[in-house]
Write a structure and sequence with these properties.
The protein is of the alpha/beta class. About 35% of the residues lie in helices and about 25% in strands. Bound molecules: guanosine-5'-diphosphate (GDP) and magnesium ion (MG).
Length: about 300
């Protein structure tokens, strides 16, 4: 068994989130990201029978170039720590890069000297990578240079194959069985939260939390042949609750409908969603409530 940590670095907009999503489609699992609580935020855990690879995101480069303020300095240290703590670094660039930017020099400067760094040219579906590869070759000695497209999934398997030799022998850190469970449930909550935000952005921004009260896979409910999800939409006031419910329940019904379709798409299962609106007065200022809602 092999197990290791891979960290991703790159300018904003090069496709870090998209690459994580593409990796997720092949044998991978996400676990609950708790932003700002850990310095390395785990974004994706890739599993197969022989290996577990933990992908972490490093904080944004914006903070490196603005390191004069306190926050920047802290995050700058966090990047250095994160990079030091990994078995392999992926530097993600845009395949269509014509000229190097100050950011590129900043990244090159903080790359660990004693760890393999793979240069990953994303968006290879729309640009040839040879020019970008030549530019970046001047900045570092790379273990490999791989063109990928997070959009078309081209090169994703090649990338995994290039990463694998750098992953040390070791037992899996995360139990794949446990992960699958918490992950799907977490993902369902995130999807519902996203739909609430999309539909109610103007009326109740950030005042709605989602709790998954019950999550039963079809194996647990053979008679139903469906994934059963019961969730609560938590608001701070009765007024917000009325907005979430809508006239004659039209809004909460709509939220349930589009969430159901999205979760069906992700899980490939038939889904039944049961949504309830509840008030927890001032939940955003209440430590106990925050903990229960997964924010603490
Ligand atoms: P991040 O800021 O590095 O996390 O970048 P995102 O993953 O948010 O992607 C930034 C933009 O690039 C989005 O509009 C994506 O749709 C687009 N994008 C990401 N990967 C690809 C790709 O492989 N090909 C193309 N054509 N566009 C991509
Ligand atoms: Mg992103």
């Amino acid at each position: 068994m092999k197990c290791g940590i891979v960290s991703l670095i790159g300018r904003p907009n090069v496709g870090k989130s998209s690459l994580i999503n593409a990796l997720l489609k092949t044998h991978a699992l996400i676990i609950s990201p708790k932003p700002q609580t850990t310095r390395n935020s785990v974004r994706c855990i890739w599993n197969d029978d022989n290996a577990q690879v933990i992908f972490t995101d490093t904080p944004g480069l914006y903070h490196v170039t603005n390191s004069r303020d306190k926050l920047g300095i802290f995050l700058n240290d966090a990047i250095l720590d994160a990079l030091d703590d990994t078995d392999c670094v992926l530097w993600l660039i845009d395949a269509g890069t014509r000229r190097l930017q100050p950011d590129d020099y900043s990244i090159a400067e903080i790359l660990p000297k004693n760890r393999p760094v793979i240069l990953v040219a994303n968006k290879a579906d729309k640009s040839d990578t040879s020019h970008a590869f030549r530019l970046y070759d001047n900045l570092h000695s790379f273990a490999a240079k791989i063109p990928v497209s997070a959009k078309t999934k081209r090169g994703i398997d090649t990338l995994m194959a290039a990463i694998m030799p750098h992953i040390p022998e070791g037992e899996a850190i995360y139990d794949p069985d446990i992960l699958m469970d918490t992950t799907e449930k977490f993902m369902a909550g995130e999807i519902i939260r996203e739909k609430v935000l999309m539909l109610l952005r103007d009326e109740v921004p950030h005042c709605v939390a989602v709790i998954i009260d019950e999550y039963k896979s079809p194996e647990e409910y053979p008679d139903r042949k469906k994934l059963y999800i019961r969730a609560s939409l938590i608001t701070e006031t009765e007024g917000q609750k009325r907005i979430v419910i809508g006239a004659n329940g039209s809004m909460i019904k709509h939220i349930g409908e589009i969430s159901r379709k999205a979760i069906e798409e992700v899980t490939g299962l038939d889904v039944y969603i049961d949504l309830w609106a509840k008030v927890i007065p001032g939940w955003r200022r209440n430590p106990a409530a925050l903990r229960r809602l997964g924010y603490a």
